[in-house]
Amino acid sequence: MEREGLSQSDSATTAGLAPLSQYVDVNTLQRLQDSFAALGQVTVCICTVEAEPITKPKWGSPYSQLIGTSDQGQEEFLLALKRRALQTCSEDVVSCHHGMSLHASTICYESQTLGLIMVGTRSPSRPSDHDVREIASIYNLDANALLQSTLTIAPYSGGTPEASRKFADVLASAIATLYSQAGRIEHQLADLRVVHDLTNLLSGTLDLQEVLDRTVRRVVEVMPVKACGIRLLNEETGELVIKAVCHLSAEYLAKGPVRLGENEIDVAAFAGETVYIEDAPNDPRSRYPQNTLREGIVSGLCVPVAYRGKSYGVLRVYTGVKHVFSETQKSLLRSIGSQAGAAIANSQLLDEHLQARRVERQIANAAEIQRRMLPRIPHNHPHLQFGCVYEPSLHLGGDFYDFIDLPEGRIGICVADVVGKGIPAALIMASIRSALRVQAQSGTDLETTLSIVNRHLCSETLSREFATLVCGYFEPDGRCFTYSCAGHPPALLLRGDNFIELDEGGTVIGIDESASFNSATQSIKKDDLLVLYSDGVFEAMNFASEEYGPERLKASIWNHRSLEAVAMAKEILWDVRRFAGLAEQSDDITVVVVRAT
To answer: Residues 280-288: contacts with CB within 8 Å, 24+ apart?
Structure first.
């Protein structure tokens, strides 16, 4: 269905809920749908409960696309959607397009259906040429083009129909969660708009001091009071610091510190109460009664400056005569205090946002520097091919790989994994890389190099900050590999039909300064495959909480053994991605492949 007019009137509104596309952007739904369709190689369309498409269908194969985008195919698909939408049992399926079975996963929120994820699967058997020609005639299609499209059909290569349906249920749940979160944000914004609509105190400026100054002036204008002041809590000192005043003298403000814990009135107001002071100069709770008397203050009211349960300070108003505040006046002052609290919260959020943007820019710059630190693949070696892939779980990763030009024409190689992620891991990674390069290029043997790097890391990091690595070097002719494995998953050598684990070495680096490391030498023959990797490969997890594991890694190496090194490294990564699907990964992934030629 190649229609541009996608439905926005999801019928969830009939149940009192906002339409699905109001809270979850159609483009987001389209991307989620298309990723799922590509992963499972199935046809997917998201629609309303009345089967009105919200997204454009993503076809599972060229064969399905040719049929589905024909005039009759579009009409038939819409009718099939409507038939399936009327089914009451989620296990029932509807057939269309001569062999496609439609299954629906419901997107539900608060027991109401927001929409449906329609998943179309086909039979694993290829239709006969005769059937294809008949189908081409039915849909007014070019028979040869339709026949050609059947050659690309790969049933269930992305997962069985049952697996696709289960994944559709997971995707429906994820979309419902996005809807719920967006709805909560929308309601919170609506609450903020209601609060701000009480008065116009906060309009026209983002400057917090100006907001507070305008607030105290407006209070004096709209309420029968002589003066007003806002004090905010300094959390480090416990003092309520004056931030904005109207009609209070400098002498009165300099009367002395006002500490939250020393004043019953402020303690109660800070806790959320509205505190009335009938006769301030004679009130035993007053800390500075003489100053109050000289200022001409008689009655007062104190309310919290708070927003969503968090108190930032207190708002006080003062009268020059004895005054009893009405409930309306108390309510108005509390509303103004809430607005001031909202302004403070928004100012803090803005500051945090700006700070986060600055940090994001710094992280992006650091990530770019880190990417530039990754070496180019050695080339033009007469007997060795190299390939590598690196995929950090965050912008900055703790994995790294390196190729080092060593004395006498040897080629050094290393894969390391620093504990943790993000900036700390990236900094430790850079430190290890520098130390390793300096020692390796100085000509020291491998065991000594690792011992020095280990002592270097121990002296510069905490005990919980350590790394694993496997490193070694090839002799100039590429037929001998000397290596050491420091607490790292062993490198895998595929020779013929057998895997050899290169596990000689020692413990992790960065914990024990006295640790020693062993090395070993492995002969390398023509057509041998050597694969170094980080544990993010076999710890990759799918939605069923299954790890990729070393056996699947070996199977991937075996399946792609005929490829060149660069292509093989990429295919191993894609095997891991296909296994994990859309499940979020917690660790970086690094794969380095060396093929002996």
So the answer is: 280/318, 287/256, 287/258, 287/262, 287/263, 288/255, 288/256
* CATH superfamily placement of domain 208-350: GAF domain (3.30.450.40)
Name the residue ranges covered by the structural domains of the chain: 11-192, 208-350, 374-596
| Domains 11-192 and 374-596 alike in fold | no
Q: What is the structure's pLDDT at 204?
A: 52
State which H helix or E strand residue 265 sits in. helix 264-270
CATH value of 11-192 in 3.30.390, 3.30.70, 3.40.720, 3.30.450: 3.30.450
Q: At 404, phi and psi to the nearest 5?
A: -125, 130
Edge-to-edge strand ranges of the sheet holding 239-246 = 239-246, 227-234, 310-318, 300-307, 275-277
- Find the angle CA(292)-CA(296)-CA(298) to the nearest 5 degrees: 75
Q: What pLDDT, on a 0 to 100 scale, did the predictor assign at position 248?
A: 93
Q: CA–CA separation, 243 vs 476, rounded Å?
A: 73
Burial-class residue 347 by CB neighbours within 10 Å (0-12, 13-18, 19+). middle
* Helix orientation angle between 422-441 and 327-373, rounded to the nearest 10 degrees: 20
257 pLDDT higher than 90 = no
Whether residue 106 is predicted with pLDDT greater than 50 in this model: the reply is: yes
Would you call 174 helix, strand, or coil by DSSP?
helix
| Separation between Cα atoms, residue 398 and residue 217, nearest integer Å | 54
4 pLDDT band (50/70/90 cuts)? Answer: very low
Structure tokens at 40: 């499972």
Helix, strand, coil abundance in the chain, percent, nearest 5: 40, 25, 35
Q: Within a 10 A sphere around the Cβ of 239, how many other Cβ atoms?
A: 17
- Structural Rg of the chain based on CA atoms: 34
Check: pTM over 0.70? Answer yes or no: no
Name 148's Cβ contacts closer than 8 Å, sequence gap at least 6. Answer: none
Whole-number Cα distances in Å, 351 to 206, 232, 354: 11, 17, 5
The sign of the dihedral angle between the CA atoms of 279, 285, 290, 294 is negative
The Cα 80–Cα 220 span in angstroms is 68
- What residue has token string 């909560």? 184
Using the structure block, give the residue that is written with the tokens 């002589």: 226
How distant is the alpha carbon of residue 550 from its chain centre?
Answer: 27
Give pLDDT tens digits for 130-182.
999 999 999 999 999 999 888 876 655 556 788 888 888 899 999 999 998 88
pLDDT value for 523: 96
Query: Which superfamily does 374-596 belong to?
Result: PPM-type phosphatase domain (3.60.40.10)
Please enumerate in sequence order all residues whose Cβ is within 8 A of that of 299, keeping only pairs 6 or more positions apart, or say none: 276, 277, 278, 279, 280, 318, 319, 321, 322, 323, 324, 325
Residues 525-570: tens digit of each pLDDT: 999 999 999 988 988 888 888 999 999 999 999 999 999 999 999 9
Q: What is the pLDDT of residues 449-508, one digit of tens each?
A: 999 999 988 888 776 788 999 999 999 999 999 999 999 999 999 999 999 999 999 999
Rounded to whole angstroms, the Cα distance separating 61 from 37 reads 10
Residue with the two structure tokens 């002719």: 477
The C-alpha atoms of residue 492 and residue 551 are separated, in whole angstroms, by: 11
